[in-house]
Write a structure and sequence with these properties.
Chain A has six helices and seven strands; from the N terminus they run βαβαβαβαββααβ. The first copy, chain A, has 225 residues and is α/β, with parallel strands linked by helices. Chain A has one domain: 3-Layer(aba) Sandwich (Rossmann fold), CATH 3.40.50. The longest helix of chain A is centred in the N-terminal third of the chain and has 19 residues. Chains A, B, C, D, E, F: GO terms for molecular function: hydrolase activity, acting on carbon-nitrogen (but not peptide) bonds, in linear amides.
Chain lengths: 225, 225, 225, 225, 225, 225
């Protein structure tokens, strides 16, 4: 069983579903993270090429710390993510190659344009990967059973799934702190931890949680024995 | 493990999630159906009391045919379903008494006012049943892990779960045909079967399906072993 | 009086409004179908050029069977429909050349990205064709009086018009079966017929219907004698 | 052929669709107006009973001026319009008694609570009047073919029908000025005329228009000869 | 200058806009809090009358600690808030009596039914209080210039105003801890503080913020000198 | 203090917020207008280059008449406004260079595609201009405190701010009449004036107003002394 995460920029995977990643890994599942961009616009002083390299190294360190073995950097231009046939075919191929049980992606109403665009691109790629279509692609069709949308810049209006991440919060914080180049301006840990506190209160006092919208759950699974 | 179905009128349970009911029963789960009204306004010639009695008998026959053992008729006035403290407390008590793993209810955007109101009443009752609140109620708090919204008069815009009901379709048709008093004006089987065909094509040729929105799925279940 | 249909792929015209096409033709109106793409991505084994040719031939056969005389293949790349000045000018020219009384297009909330994009492109072209604008275009301005949005992959939430297609259903099925290359994976007839059954029940038992949203109806027509 | 107008308060009929009323009358159709309330809360100095009487007289004078022969005052309490079985049955009866070809009502998103509630009540009554239901009602079932929603306090987001009211604007102004008790605080003519100017520009320079959403248009009418 | 807060239950004022209250008070404005219910359903063991009394005392202690001088308990039944003429007139009177510059209320999309209903009731009361209407009310008409909607159970999708509450956070925590009867089940401080951390990161590292939607801001204020 | 206006075409600035511009100028603020396109598609007989020149001259005359000193023509192709890195960087630079207190832009739901796209581009540029990001840009980060969305082709559903423009209406009309090339087909003054009448009635009889949605207002400003 494997898990495929789509993140607009390095660190969105951790803010949106880093605790879930840690829990999947703890249960022995392979986790693969696909970064749509390498966040190369996130500075006024470091040039794009250098910044992309720095952020990919930070993502790699965070992955090592968590135990994620498999990262893909699609290296689209940060701030200008666009649908192209090349990108679409790469995304279809990634889905068909990894054949994940679970996909995580940003939710539809996130206010950040790159997050919205990532949502659209992933939803489209999942549909296109599921059938015998698109000659330029490789691998057999694969329909992902479980698809979950996470929150980063805009909280979800309807939460349909909570992941209790209390026990992996310390590890998650260490992973997030690998993204040193980004921590000067915005305290991403305060952001992730604050929202996890807010979401966790509905489980029990003292719990931390990540919140999701269930976009898809496996056909006929609820009536199965 | 038990299943609790909320239906605005007798037959909505079958149209919206009758195949799912049959499958839960086949897997040995207890299914309980709560009818908000007994559909007592569904005629111009039969008086309300007589019609309610007829429709409750039809629902009882359909339940026997399927194997549903437990029906509750809340007997609110058809067409004028309203939130009252008495109704709310009864609904909280039903949730706490049955402690279901699964709840099924009409979806939020169904165009029929009684379906919309049932949606609101159930969502509210589930929240109120979950905590140590409402002195007039009995039973210990119970938070329902899985909540699924079904479609009757208005199809869902976003389907997040499909139930393959091909193998129970014949049984479902027989159950629906127990509602004889309602079949003169509207062909409910054509309605349910037509939509099941439309939903089933995305599973495989020849399949029939019921479609749902996942309102809630069990906390931390997706990362569990 | 003429009718202009915009379809994302060959066969969407039949699934969405094929019965309406047959009825317009039976009443002597010229029907023109514009295919945004030739569905050239709908296979993993047949190359794009060959598949486009096959699907255009299938569409041509279906058109002959129905009596549609006039097809236009815009041949945009399936899966990657995009707004460009060239496409926009061709669409404006088509509207001004045919001066249709009726336009049919996919509805705004259809879940398929090519359908959504076709909706946006057609709505925009209708506005641009209506006034004395866009130097690169030909023909006099034409404001289309009646514009109807049809449903394919996502049912409409609000239906404001029903077309009874019971009497042309057999013909429609034959036309849809001309699209042989596409029928292996998805049973499009089950899909169209299932939804037509569901929509038809609100007319009368045994009727089949296509459902639409009225985007525009002719100015001052409702008060006319 | 007859026309049935539902208005939350006296004068809403004129602001929302007064020009359309005048045009229907000019073409010989019977127009019937149903006022949900008599606007009895519209003052701090005149008591409710007196104000209701004044406003009903104003509505009667405006109706005489336009040529409307038939007014019904439901006399619900202004500001507190509520769904009750009695009101619902009266509304069903009105629809079945008049058997109108056209119904006009406030649109769904009007910001005024009484307008929203009128919308909900009328939509529900139209559905309930259409079938053989509700024993307490009289008259044979009647399904209204054309249903149009007008704008008063909140403009429509999507206009699907325009009525050119230029030629009846003077008459409409005279009718609106019959509502003397209401003209001190808000210049309703400026409101109606301003919006009619804004809506009319898309027809031609100098035209005035009322804008509507088409909620329902007659089944199969667009393909008829 | 005065500030009027509408809260569904005691403690919602603090969770939603308690920091703003503290800042208004620090700047010398009178703050008045209106509790729609006294939260009398928030227990299974304490009867409604006793619980209402306990929670009103807790609210009074929190108010004293913050410096709020003026509390109104409308004492509607917790969980069953409903629009009635009596409630509406009391709310209109409160607005006209206090003539506040600022009103705070729950936002429209809060998932808790009592919060949604409070939103609707306040928006309606503000409109009704603004004009010379409603004979049963007292006081001169008053149109509230600034109206802000706060978040409690569902975060806002669009934030149009942030209040920096870092400097009053300790005081706010002490005030919230006065609501002892409610702190056993849900850690409201974790909830409020978590969300304030999440909202504060967009101001600067280490800041805490309350987020709002601006429903109304004073006419012509942005162009004034 | 300065004001930055983003307009899809020359004249949208006047229709949407021309009265506000006049009032800002009267109070001594610098107003800068950025035209996304020069409206070069607005004719069938004048070629694009000539038309752009004519419309820029018309905009310049209108600006002189009002007293606007600073116009920027971005000269994107009318009807085909698109997000590109070059455009985005120019927009970020404009924001950082002018450091405006106020930004005005079309609202999100305007039915005209160029208006929608301008909305998206401006919202994105404001976010990108606010932080230390985007190496290709110049100037220090600047977060715009007040952001207001105006209405042109589609009225706002929720108005959160009104600007009383009665006293500058004559001047505004003169400015709008500078756009001679556009006045043949559509009476833009009737459009702007009609909507201003409609919006103005809620202030007082005889007033004219521009309506806005407040997208952003300055942090902590409402509690300040």
């Amino acid at each position: 069983m494997s898990v495929l995460i789509f993140a607009p920029h390095p660190d969105d995977d951790l803010i949106g579903c880093g605790g879930s990643i840690a829990k999947h890994l703890a249960n022995g599942r392979a986790v693969h993270v696909v970064y749509m961009t390498s966040g190369n616009a996130g500075s006024r002083v470091i040039d794009k090429t250098s910044l992309a390299q720095i952020r990919e190294e930070e993502a790699t360190r965070a992955a090592e710390l968590l135990g994620v073995k498999n990262l893909t950097f699609l290296r689209h231009d940060d701030g200008y993510l666009k649908d192209t046939p090349e990108l679409a075919e790469r995304m279809i191929n990634l889905v068909r190659q990894h054949r994940p049980e679970y996909v995580y992606l940003p939710h539809e109403d996130d206010g950040h344009p790159d997050h919205q665009e990532t949502h659209r691109l992933v939803v489209k790629a999942l549909a296109q990967a599921a059938g015998p279509w698109f000659q330029g692609t490789t691998g057999d069709p694969w329909a992902v059973p479980t698809v979950l949308a996470y929150e980063v810049w805009t909280p979800l209006r309807h939460v349909s799934y909570l992941e209790d991440i209390t026990d992996v919060a310390t590890l998650l914080r260490q992973a997030l702190e690998c993204h040193k180049s980004q921590l000067g301006e915005i305290d991403y840990w305060a952001m992730a931890y604050g929202l996890a506190q807010y979401r966790g209160v509905t489980i029990a006092p003292g719990r931390l949680a990540e919140a999701f919208t269930v976009i898809s759950s496996p056909t006929s699974s609820f009536t199965a024995k």
